[in-house]
Amino acid sequence: MRLEDFDNDEDKVIQDRLKRKTWNEIRTNDSWAIFKIMAEFVNGYESMGRIGPCVTIFGSARTKPEDAYYLLAEKIAYKISKAGYGVITGGGPGIMEAGNKGAHLGGGTSVGLNIELPFEQHFNPYIDSDKNLNFDYFFVRKVMFVKYSQGFVVMPGGFGTMDELFEAMTLIQTKKIARFPIILVGSSFWAGLIDWIKTVLVEKEATVSAEDLNLFKIVDTEDEVVDVLDKFYKKYDLTPNF
C-alpha cells in the first residue's frame, strides 16, 4: 500500500517509519540524529550540572488537582524542599505539576524535564523559570533523571512511571549506578504489583532475588518520605544540596 492509501495519520506514520529505506537514506538520517542527540545531552548536562542533584517525583500526568494523590504529592514536595532537597519532575501536568507546586510553595528549587509528546504533556507553571528543560528523546531525559537524582519518589502512575521505576532498580541491581532511595508512595496502589513480584518473580520463577525487594520502600505519608531520605543520607554522612 502507498502512504496516501492509509486513512489516518497514525497508520501513515507506522508505514513511513517501517518501510524499507535505501542505505543512503539510513546513513543520512542516522548521522543527523546523532548530532541532535549529542546536543540534548550537552544541554542537559550543562543545565543540570549548574542546578545540582535533587529528589525526583514521578507519577501520572492524568491525575487531577482534586485527587488525593495530587494533594499528597504537593505535600511531599513541600516537605522535601523544606528539608533542603530540590525537586525534579517530568515538568508536565498531574503529579508532576503537584511536585513542582509543592517545591515552589516551599521556596525550594523546582526543576522540570519536559518531553515533546503529541498529547498530555505541557509544562506546568510551577517550574523555576531558569530550570525548565525540554527534550525530544526519552532516553536522554531518563539519563538526566538518574544522573541528577538524590532519590526517586514514585507516586501512582502509568507506563512512563513504571518505566522510570524499573530502569532505576535495574541500574542499581546491576551496580551500574550507586544506590539511592526509591520510595513508592501509596501502599494500596502498589500492593498488587509488589505481591506479583514476590509470588511470581521471586518465589515461582526465581527471576529476581529476594534481596532485590530491599531496593525500594513503600510509604503512605509525606513525613515517611522525608524520613526515608534523611535516614539514607545521614547513614552515608551526606546532606541535601539546598
TrEMBL record:
GO MF annotation list: AMP nucleosidase activity
EC number: 3.2.2.n1
Gene3D superfamilies from the UniProt entry: 3.40.50.450
InterPro entries registered for this protein in UniProt: LOG (IPR005269), LOG_fam (IPR031100), LOG_family_nucleotidases (IPR052341)
One GO cellular component, as annotated: cytosol
GO biological process, alphabetically ordered: cytokinin biosynthetic process
Sequence intervals crossing the membrane: none
Reactions catalysed: AMP + H2O = D-ribose 5-phosphate + adenine
Principal EC category: hydrolase
Keywords noted in UniProt: Cytokinin biosynthesis, Hydrolase
Any one Pfam family match given in the protein's UniProt record, by short name: Lysine_decarbox
Record family assignment: Belongs to the LOG family.
Protein name per its UniProtKB record: Cytokinin riboside 5'-monophosphate phosphoribohydrolase
